[in-house]
Design a protein that fits this description.
Layout lengths: L14 H14 L5 E2 L11 H12 L12 H15 L8 E4 L2 H12 L5 E6 L4 H8 L3 E6 L10 H7 L4 E7 L11 H12 L5 E5 L15 H4 L7 E6 L12 E4 L2 H12 L7 H12 L4 H21 L14 E2 L20 H12 L1 E2 L1 E2 L9 E4 L4 H16 L3
Helix pairs in contact: 2-10, 3-10, 4-5, 4-9, 6-7, 11-13
């Protein structure tokens, strides 16, 4: 009898976590490595959030809390949804988890049965398909095209829906492409879902506040109120509030679904970190002026990356609407050989050779379901980003 669960055979380790860990190990060994793999802002957590955490510790708020969030945080999340998204949720329709990843996973495990399908646009965040598989479902991948700005079309979504479809996952701005859907594009997609009453929407809004060039963020349940009772709107404080390590995600949705997710969480992690919950409350309710300052830095870095990548023959990089990623394609580099003799047979070989020969860590496109391409995070200091792009340009220029 095998000792390990057969369900683990259906999934792979997170590529982004693995490559980030490899880069850290190489640096510890003395290698000069610049990491462009981690989706993590380089800015510190805002001061008022840190102070709120200290105050919570000093006040003794370090004990168990309700399973899926303290009432004060749930009420703040409900106010946030109303204020910023035009969505009305009672606290009983709000759940708080240990990061957005747990919230997504809870929703899938609480709802999927064998044979259920989940439609996932590609390029996708690396964890979506594997979470579906772990929950017993079947991911159905819908490829987007670079010429469409990495956005799927309503026709492609319609074609992917079957009687077995339970969810479709929507992520705007996207990880890994930074592509956003404007209101007209989103209305066209939600119109498809409205025609299929058995299909629910899982909206991952984690990059809501990281948008540029006047892009107006919209979320499906606000654009299509008819979908409100079959939509789970997921968000968190990790990216916009520079709180990746604090591990607080949240969602609003129908009370029956939220109750099922709470039941699941009660038998897994129980409550998220108590101190982090009070810090998240301060993040949502406190000053927001730092967001504009951070976004100005991200726009500068985005433009630096897009300009450098598009200047490399064989590479094409669309301009993203938000997040802090770019997703260039490398059709023109496949089949060539690196200066050290590595064959660039696919995007994973490209990423491996780039790390080995130039000390630049990126994530290969196959991990996101669409090749040949790669993802870089430009959420690092301008000088380090500039050096990484210079190394990448040198590496690509030396391919033969």
């Amino acid at each position: 009898m095998p000792f390990l669960s057969a369900s683990l055979d259906r999934v792979a380790p997170s590529a982004t976590v693995a490559i980030t860990g490899l880069a850290q190990r190489l640096r510890a060994e003395g290698r000069d490595v610049i990491g462009l793999a981690a989706g993590e802002p380089d800015f510190d957590t805002p001061l008022h959030v840190r102070e709120a955490a200290k105050d919570a510790i000093d006040a003794g708020r370090t004990r168990y809390t309700p399973v899926d969030g303290i009432p004060e945080l749930k009420e703040a999340i409900a106010r946030k949804f109303a204020r910023e998204n035009g969505l009305r949720y009672a606290p009983s329709e709000v759940t708080v988890g240990t990061g957005g990843k747990q919230v997504l996973y809870n929703a899938l495990v609480a709802t999927l049965n064998p044979g259920d399908e989940v439609v996932i646009p590609a390029p996708y965040w690396v964890s979506y398909p594997d979470m579906v598989r772990l929950a017993g479902g079947t991911p159905v991948i819908v490829p987007a095209r670079a010429e469409d700005g990495w956005r799927i079309t309503p026709e492609a979504l319609e074609a992917a829906i079957t009687p077995r479809t339970k969810w479709w996952i929507f992520n705007s701005p996207s990880n890994p492409t930074g592509a956003g859907y404007d209101e007209a594009s989103l209305r066209a997609l939600t119109a498809v879902v409205e025609r299929h009453p058995h299909v629910w929407t899982l909206s991952d809004d984690m990059y809501e506040h990281l948008v540029y060039d006047g892009f107006a963020f919209r979320t499906p349940a606000a654009v299509a109120p008819a979908l409100r009772d079959r939509t789970l709107t997921v968000n968190g404080v990790s990216k916009a509030y520079c709180m990746t390590g604090w591990r607080i995600g949240y969602a609003g949705g129908p009370e029956t679904l939220v109750a099922a997710m709470r039941k699941l969480q009660s038998q897994s992690t129980s409550n998220p970190c108590s101190v982090s919950q009070w810090a998240a409350l301060a993040a949502l309710e406190g000053p927001q002026d730092f967001l504009a300052e951070h976004n100005r830095a991200f726009v500068r870095r985005r433009d630096m990356a897009v300009r450098a990548l598009n200047a490399i023959p064989g590479v094409a990089c669309p301009v993203p609407d938000g997040a802090f990623y770019v997703y260039p394609t490398i059709h023109g580099l496949i089949g060539r050989t690196s200066p050290a003799g590595a064959a660039i047979t696919d995007d994973e070989a490209f990423a491996t050779a780039l790390l080995d020969e130039e000390g630049v860590a990126v994530v290969h496109g196959a991990a996101f379901g669409l090749s040949p391409a790669f993802r870089i995070s430009y959420a690092l200091a301008d000088e380090a980003l500039g050096e990484a792009l210079a190394r990448m340009t040198r590496f690509c220029g030396a391919l033969r």
